[in-house]
TrEMBL record:
An annotated Gene Ontology molecular function: ATP binding
This protein's UniProt keywords: ATP-binding, Nucleotide-binding, Transport
PROSITE patterns tied to this protein: ABC_TRANSPORTER_1 (PS00211), ABC_TRANSPORTER_2 (PS50893)
Organism of this sequence: Fodinibius salsisoli
Protein name, per record: ATP-binding cassette domain-containing protein
Length: 246
């Protein structure tokens, strides 16, 4: 479980949010939504202490991560996988090497065990037999799947997705949505998804956190979101070309 308590963040005179509090339960998929510049990516970077707040806490397993010492912090960060926007693959490495990369650096597995794990990961993202392909020649959807295999190879407890469907066609987006759902179910991963894609939110999220007006404007289950009368939430969702079912 991740508890976000009274987070306040500004950059100089630019106040991003005043006071954000909500909890992310173990195994849950939470979508963080809101207009450009509301601080979704900044919030994401607070969850594994890549950024520090002006005040407030992020509690994981009873400890405020902003109080952790270097080694504890390193250990905590290893519990997070991140699917970066645009996949962030190393194009000088092939598909197998990209997925194996975290294992080479952060585990003491022998080469045979690494090979087995990477093959399992490729299977999980429906890319069996593509290990020797150059990532530069893969389609956008395939690159996203390789990135997902790499982000989960160390079996993280938490997986942060930064715009996982951006730039993909609807069918490929749907494949990625299905993979996010199966990752959460099969690997018991707690997922935090930053996205503008309301269709994706409706498919994958258990809970939605909507940032607006320098704070958390609305928070609740996906079912409650579809019945909400919160005008700002309605405006945001409607502008996203989706009419909330009534
Ligand atoms: N390192 C930084 N230094 C100064 N300002 C920053 C820094 N990082 C982010 N900001 C500012 O914080 C605000 C929120 O940025 P953030 O990237 O979190 O928005 P976002 O909601 O993720 O936007 P988008 O949907 O466009 O990706 C912006 O005004 C941005 O300029």
């Amino acid at each position: 479980m991740i508890e976000i308590r009274n987070l306040k963040k500004s950059f100089g005179s630019n106040l991003i949010w005043e006071d954000i509090s909500f909890s992310i339960e173990g195994g849950e998929t939470v979508a963080i939504i809101g207009r450009s510049g509301c601080g979704k990516s900044v919030l994401m970077k607070h969850l594994n202490a890549l950024m520090y707040p002006d005040s407030g806490e992020v509690i994981i397993d009873g400890k405020n991560i902003f109080d952790l010492e270097y080694l504890e912090l390193r250990k905590m960060r290893q519990r997070f996988g991140v699917l970066f926007q645009g996949s962030a693959l190393f194009d000088s490495l092939n598909t197998f090497e990209n997925i194996a990369f975290p294992l080479q650096y952060f585990s003491d597995l022998d080469q045979q065990s690494i090979k087995k794990k990477v093959e399992e990961a490729l299977k999980m993202v429906n890319l069996e037999g593509t290990g020797d392909r150059s990532t530069a020649e893969l389609s956008g959807g395939m690159r996203r799947r390789v990135a997902l295999a790499r982000a989960t190879i160390l079996q993280p407890d938490f997986l942060i997705y930064d715009e996982p469907t951006s730039g993909l066609d609807p069918q490929t987006s749907e494949e990625i949505n299905q993979l996010i759902i199966s990752m959460a179910e099969n690997l018991s991963i707690t997922s935090i998804v930053v996205t503008h894609d309301i269709h994706s939110v409706l498919k994958i999220a258990d809970t939605v956190a909507f940032l607006e007006d320098k704070g958390l404007c609305w928070y609740g289950s996906i079912e409650k979101m579809q019945e909400s009368n919160n005008q700002q939430l309605l405006d945001f969702v409607t502008a996203s070309e989706y009419q909330i079912r009534r």
